[in-house]
Amino acid sequence: MNLYHSNSEKSVIQLTKADKERYEQGLQEADQPFSGWDFSYVTGSDRLQSGMLPWSYGTMARRLLNQTERMLDMGTGGGEMLSRLLPLPPYTCATEGYLPNIPIAEERLQRLGVKVFPVTDDSQLPFEDAEFDLILNRHESYDEKEVRRILSAGGLFLTQQVGWSDCREINDRLGIPMLADYAGWELDRAVFQLEQCGFRILEQREATPAQRFYDIGALVYYLKTIPWQVPDFKVEHFREPLMEIHMEMEQNGFWEVQQKRFVILAVNE
Questions:
Q1: pLDDT digits 0-9 by tens, 180-200
Q2: Most buried of the four, 12, 39, 160, 256, by CB within 10 Å?
Q3: pTM given for the model
Q4: Full set of structural domains in the chain with CATH
């Protein structure tokens, strides 16, 4: 049996050989391939679970789809969500800013008649004025002025966003500050900016569901695939705090953090 010294808590944690083997095996999850925004590698095996939201973005989006002929999906990822909202409006487009996702989205969406547009600047989208009657946006950054420009009068904007404080327990434990670029990005600020731009808010809600990691490999995989949580994440830089989290998982069965989500439905007036 080995002893692991935790400097942050000034305590000693006893590690068995099996503990160390599970820990080292978990760190290797960083090498697992990842494409699109498909987290089924860990969610499909219940190694990562998130609490329920008091709304369903998919249900909200589906209801709006039945009322429009021209729609844009911003930040489509690999097209996973959009491809599940069939039937789509006759004219449907999608944008994506993460280059590795572009071919994945094209392969999934082109057969559905959806053209995918790569974007690099939220303030310069490749569309005409008032080109869409509905814009969907799930976990994607946006420029409210540009959204209003390409949205028809009376058009609807539905967005679900990740709040700045999302899963901040991870950053606190790893000693990494939250990204300053997103500081203050919460529901009140998003609503204020949309209203200042000429939108009227039809619906707004926020929630802080729990997210549980059931083994250290699930957390390592998550950090690899969510680069904005801990930029340039490498396991070798965080072996000590990751070991502490691993031991808490071994003792409690899971490690829990708090997510931050909010949803807004707005009309362009």
A1: 888 999 999 999 999 999 999
A2: 160
A3: 0.87
A4: 1-31+215-253 (no CATH), 53-210+259-268 (3.40.50.150)
